[in-house]
């Protein structure tokens, strides 16, 4: 019986280490190293609350800027001064990260309420 135990091969750790290494490499490649942050979520108010001003709707260009250029910049400044909400519409050619960067720029400029909205498909 002792001869049988001596002949049985043990569990090979080499293959286990290889699999663990591949998993580590996989998760390193698919994970994002960007700083994660929470986005504020605007919830609906009560029925008794005062109606808000109509939002300023802007279109985000594929390069991450505003489609209206300098005209949009002036409209943004007026909307921030009037505390109007701002809605950024993103088309199919715009990356979500560009939309989030534009939201950050609006909040840094003093926008109290800004949101992303996908453009309607035609």
Automatic annotation (TrEMBL):
Query: Which GO molecular function terms does the record list?
Result: transmembrane transporter activity
Task: Give its localization.
Answer: Cell membrane
Q: Does the keyword Cell membrane apply?
A: yes
How is this protein positioned relative to the membrane? Single-pass membrane protein; Single-pass type II membrane protein
Task: Establish whether keyword Cell cycle is in the entry.
Answer: no
UniProt cross-references to InterPro entries, sorted A to Z: ExbD
Q: Hey, which family's this protein in?
A: Belongs to the ExbD/TolR family.
State the protein's name. Answer: Biopolymer transporter ExbD
What species is given as this protein's source?
Stappia taiwanensis
